[in-house]
Amino acid sequence: MAHAQSHKALIWKVFGLLSVITFVEVLLGIYKPSALHLTKVLGTSILNWMFLILTLVKAYFIAWYFMHLSDEKKWFRRAIVWTLVLYILYLSFFVLTEGGALGRTFRGVFESITTFS
Q1: Residue from 14, 29, 27 nearest 60 by CA
Q2: Per-domain residue ranges of the chain
Q3: pTM for this prediction
């Protein structure tokens, strides 16, 4: 019974941590501090980077504890975690770098549609 209690306590701790991270994300999204929102780093605002990092931390804890990756063999955990980390970094790079290019491309299209000559 002691193992079940300790596991139950761990689940509540992880749930609390995930709740705090979500609360911080919601507060940042509502208030959008201008020091974080208007300062650009590597093509996007610090606020966007913070959302990305906090979301990855939440995904890590969900996979590690609720999907029981912490109980797996070391090589299997690394294979899953590092593959996902590299994939997420790859997708984030393209979203953050190509998002502006897509906006610039369609800006001209929308301006030509809305201007009447």
Answers
A1: 14
A2: 2-114
A3: 0.67
